[in-house]
Design goal:
CATH superfamily: NCX, central ion-binding region
Order of helices and strands: HHHHEHHHHHHHHEH
Strand content: under 5%
Radius of gyration: 19 Å
Shape: globular
Number of helices: 13
Strand order of the largest sheet: 1-2
Helix content: over 70%
Largest sheet: 2 strands, antiparallel
Oligomer: single chain
Structural class: mainly alpha
CATH topology: A middle domain of Talin 1
């Protein structure tokens, strides 16, 4: 294995994570300055935190490393559910969810999950998958951004959505450590610079991981679905544990589901529609990763809805399922 690989991987991972943290802070500061709705701020923060895995996944797919690209996206989503919801509940104790938040976030997450799984399995064309994901994600963004009284819906539906968004916004408000509000120009420059650094560092991280995997004879899906997926998801884990400790159940759920949704939309569906990446034969390990993501999404939402939150026991179950997934992946 080339001597530069390990230092390059470790260094680029640290740089990418630090730059992603700065990007989140800059976007939150800009959102506060512009008085953006809390749910939209949460989406922006999730997208910024997803920068490393999105860049690594798209880079791998553009290089023809389909298994690594799909592995990073779906593997990080499996990791997110176990770490953000499971570890968060174990560390912080029982975390309560608002029922409306689970239904709102869950509807979007399940719709996008179904579309993305159908795409990589070859049962849904790219255009149809893009339409399916847009049909779930776009209304969610509209509901988050537009006051409910302006929505062309029956009064009962408007009231329900207003309550769901209000409950989630209350959890998101003050859910993250406060960022100092500085000049818009300075924060804009910080955000742009951070994006460039995240992209460059993530490209180096993906390339060094691929070279190391080839040198060690590790399957591409292991490199993507386990190594890169876990490393690139660390910022989300830190945020989720913070939210769990603060008792911000809706915000923790939103962080997990939004991160996963944006991963597959930004890293798979949109690139597939624009440049055609995303299609390709999946190994047995790749298919296992895709279906593990779907199964854990359904399980986490079902358990969270039934128990109106996450207990330590449920958190331990999610972590245990993830460890079983990794063990099975290593054995395939």
């Amino acid at each position: 294995m080339p001597v530069w690989v390990v230092p390059a991987f470790v260094g680029s991972a640290v740089i990418s994570l630090l730059a992603g943290h700065q990007l989140v802070k800059a976007l939150e500061s800009l959102g506060e300055r512009w008085a953006a709705p809390q749910v939209l701020l949460g989406l922006a923060a999730a997208l910024a935190a997803d920068g490393p895995e999105l860049t690594s996944a798209v880079t791998a797919q553009l290089e023809g490393q389909h298994s690594i690209g799909v592995g990073v996206l779906f593997g990080s989503n499996v990791f997110n559910i176990a770490a953000l919801l499971g570890v968060g509940a174990i560390v912080a104790g029982p975390v309560r969810f608002h029922r409306r938040a689970v239904l709102l976030e869950g509807t979007v997450a399940l719709g996008v999950t179904a579309g993305s799984v159908a795409l990589v399995e070859g049962s849904l064309p790219v255009g149809a998958c893009l339409a399916v994901t847009a049909a779930f994600l776009v209304p969610y963004v509209v509901v988050a951004a537009v006051p409910s009284q302006h929505l062309p819906l029956p009064r009962g539906a408007r009231d329900w959505l207003a309550a769901a968004v209000r409950e989630e916004s209350e959890d998101l408000e003050g859910g993250y450590p406060a960022s100092p509000v500085r000049g818009a120009g300075r924060e804009g420059l910080t955000a742009v610079s951070a994006v460039l650094v995240v992209v460059a560092a993530s490209v180096v991280m993906e390339r060094s991981a691929s070279v190391a995997g080839e040198a060690l004879g590790a399957p591409a899906v292991i490199v993507g679905a386990v190594v890169l997926a876990a490393v690139t998801s660390l910022p989300n884990v830190v945020a989720a544990v913070y939210l769990a400790r603060a008792g911000k159940g809706a915000a923790m759920l939103s962080e997990a589901m939004n991160s996963n949704t944006l991963n597959v939309v930004g890293g798979l569906v949109v690139p597939a529609a624009i440049v055609g990446v995303g299609a390709g034969h999946l190994s047995g390990g790749g298919q296992l990763t895709v279906w593990a993501y779907a199964a854990m999404t359904v399980a986490a939402l079902g358990l969270g809805l039934a128990g109106r939150g996450m207990s330590r026991t449920v958190g331990a179950v999610l972590v245990g399922v993830y460890l079983a997934f990794v063990a099975t992946l290593l054995a395939t």
